[in-house]
Amino acid sequence: MGVLTLATVNPGEAEIFASLQGEGPSMGRPSTFVRLSRCNLACRWCDTAYTWRFTGDNRPHRDDLAFERSANQLVLDEGEVASRIVALSPDRLVITGGEPLLQGAALARMVAAVRQARPDFHVEIETNGSVAPHAALDALVDQYNVSPKLAHSGNPAELALIPERLSAWAAEPRAYFKFVVATPADVEEVAVLQKAYAIPGERLFVMPEGTDSATLRDRSKWLSDAALSAGWRFTDRLHIHLYGDTRGT
Q1: How far apart are CA 185 and CA 101, in angstroms?
Q2: Residue 235 among known ligand-binding residues
Q3: Does 178 appear as a known binding residue?
Q4: Family assignment (predicted)?
Q5: 109-166: per-residue pLDDT in tens?
Q6: Long-range pairs for 49-56: beta carbons < 8 A, 24 or more residues apart
Q7: Using an 8 Å Cβ cutoff, are 45 and 186 in contact?
Q8: How far apart are CA 244 and CA 30, in angstroms?
Q9: Is the terminal CB of the chain with fewer CB neighbours within 10 Å at N or C?
Q10: Which top CATH class is 3-178?
Q11: pTM higher than 0.85 for the full model?
């Protein structure tokens, strides 16, 4: 067995927890979460910047915060991660980040160990859509929650919107798209991407960007209308309303 690099809730405490899934097609379902550290992109509005914006990383972020790596990153044996997941009761595993697919081979071994202990586990992976899944891991995944980053994220399109990856996800029936939207201009960008890659409306969610209930509600008013008009699905951020913008929720 190898190791996985995880985010932390507090220094030395891995971010492995039970909660309700807050977004996308599984919103409201009791789930076991594991949050991995490291990301290949850098979103200006990222609400988990502690997984990548470590001291010395000067990529733009709206809060302009830098996090000490040693306090916000933890390396654990794959078997230990699997044991902690199995010990929690929800049988829906959500692997998030950061960008989980950067650790595909180690994740495959960890998920295999979870499946061996509890074959009933439903496995979801949340990804920014720019990284191909490891073959061994892909065979163990029930659902992908793919969130390609639009121009307002601040990521160059050549890094965030890779045509062959978007085509592959659009053709993958296990993949649900979730676009983070802050302004009506973002809606127009989603429409362009849907047409270019033939993304089925049934698997396309739009979600308001925001880390407080007031912002989410304000943006939901016009975004829900846009979703209805375009034939897309709308998702809120349930965990923000329930717990606020906090770790381990």
Answers
A1: 29
A2: no
A3: no
A4: Belongs to the radical SAM superfamily. 7-carboxy-7-deazaguanine synthase family.
A5: 999 999 999 999 999 999 999 999 999 999 999 999 999 999 999 999 999 999 999 9
A6: 50/7, 50/8, 50/247, 51/7, 51/97, 51/98, 52/98
A7: no
A8: 18
A9: N
A10: alpha beta
A11: yes
Query: According to the annotation, is 22 in a ligand binding site?
Result: yes
CA–CA gap between residue 68 and residue 125 (Å, rounded): 26
Is 90 within any annotated ligand binding site?
no
CA distance 161 to 152: 13
Q: Name the percent of the chain in helix, strand, coil, to the closest 5.
A: 40, 25, 40
62 is in an annotated binding site: no
User: 92 labelled as ligand-binding?
Assistant: no
Are the beta carbons of 4 and 72 closer than 8 angstroms?
no
Secondary structure class of 213 (helix, strand, coil): helix
98 is in an annotated binding site: yes
Does residue 35 have a known ligand-binding role? yes
Which residues contact residue 84 at a Cβ distance below 8 angstroms, ignoring those fewer than 6 apart? 14, 16
Residue 100 annotated in ligand binding: no
Nearest by Cα to 11 from 70, 76, 61, 67: 70
Strands 16-20 and 30-35: antiparallel
- Any known ligand binding at 20? yes
DSSP codes of every residue in 167-180? HHHHT-TTEEEEEE
Q: Annotated binding residue at 19?
A: no
Residue 222 annotated as binding site: no
